[in-house]
Amino acid sequence: MILLLIISLLFAQSPAPQTSVDEKSQQIIDRAIEVLGGQKYLGVQTVIGKGFYTTFKDGMSQIPARFLDYIQYPDHERTEFSGAGIRTIQTNAGDTGWMFDGAVKKISDQSPKQVEDFKQAIRTSLEYLLRGYWKKDGGKITYAGRREAGVGKRNETIRLVFPDDWWIEYEFGARDGLPAKIIYKREHKDMDSGDVVLMTEEDQLLKFITVDGVTAPWVVDHFINGKQTSRINYESVQYNQKFADSLFAKPADVKSIK
């Protein structure tokens, strides 16, 4: 009885995060889910994507690298990059992560910062919003109005704010309901001063293609303070394909990597 009383008191002192979404924002979210495939979109549990990842420097694209990406929602991902005869792997599973550097044939654990960067990437993804993962983090969503999006185009904007005042903005086409942009701020080290400063990051979602009833952007352009830094360009996407959980497990040695 005493143990049960202690447990009940602990739960009473740790209330569930308070979340909310206004009516206009919910309408925008519901429409986006519908145009992306409705229940087929929400029913996706795994994604296998292939394509090219390109970095940009001073506005110029660099040599693209091939990638093979495995996603298992909500928080497992393995991305393999290959280029110039070298293969690298970045794998995350919840609070853990490991890397394989093919240049030096080495497997290592991810640093706490690398794991945190992965978690933040999840928090700024479209799926985080549309699948409702934000609710467990106590987010609140409000309508932020319409914005210019080119000649004769407007985007509807909603803002997701967390208890620590960190926010993400999502823009959706006013006419077609498709997601268009994801905007947020993140800390970066200024290359000139060495100071850590907040910079605005933006993902532009382009080239929507439908596969098996699920619609998704096949091109994602990333910008930091208005300058493009990378592009993801998919060549193929497969949904709900089965793959072993061992895909995310850290190999015992280099020879064990498949």
Q: How are the SSEs placed, and which strands pair?
A:
Blueprint: H1 2-13, E1 20-21, H2 23-35, H3 39-42, E2 46-57, E3 60-61, E4 65-72, E5 76-83, E6 86-93, E7 96-101, E8 106-109, H4 112-123, H5 126-130, E9 140-148, E10 154-161, E11 167-173, E12 179-189, E13 196-211, E14 214-224, E15 227-239
Parallel strand pairs: 1-9
Antiparallel strand pairs: 2-3, 2-4, 2-15, 4-5, 5-6, 6-7, 7-8, 9-10, 10-11, 11-12, 12-13, 13-14, 14-15
**CATH class descriptor name:** Mainly Beta
CATH level-two architecture: Clam
Task: Please trace the helix and strand order, writing H or E for each element.
Answer: HEHHEEEEEEEHHEEEEEEE
Cα shape? globular
Q: What is the CATH superfamily?
A: Lipoprotein localisation LolA/LolB/LppX
Mean pLDDT: 91
- DSSP helix fraction: 10-25%
Instruction: Describe the largest sheet.
Output: 15 strands, mixed
CATH topology: outer membrane lipoprotein receptor (LolB), chain A
Oligomeric state of this protein = single chain
Structural class per helix/strand content? alpha+beta
Strand content: over 45%
Instruction: Give the C-alpha Rg.
Output: 20 Å
Number of helices: 5
Terminal CA distance reads 52 Å
Total count of strands: 15
Into how many domains do the coordinates divide? Answer: 1
The parts where pLDDT drops under 50 for at least 5 residues are 1-12
Walkthrough of the structure:
There is one protein chain. The chain has 258 residues and is an alpha+beta fold. The chain has a single domain, classed as Clam (outer membrane lipoprotein receptor (LolB), chain A). It is 18% helix and 48% strand. The chain has five helices and 15 strands. It has a 15-stranded mixed sheet that branches. The model is unreliable at 1-12 (pLDDT under 50).
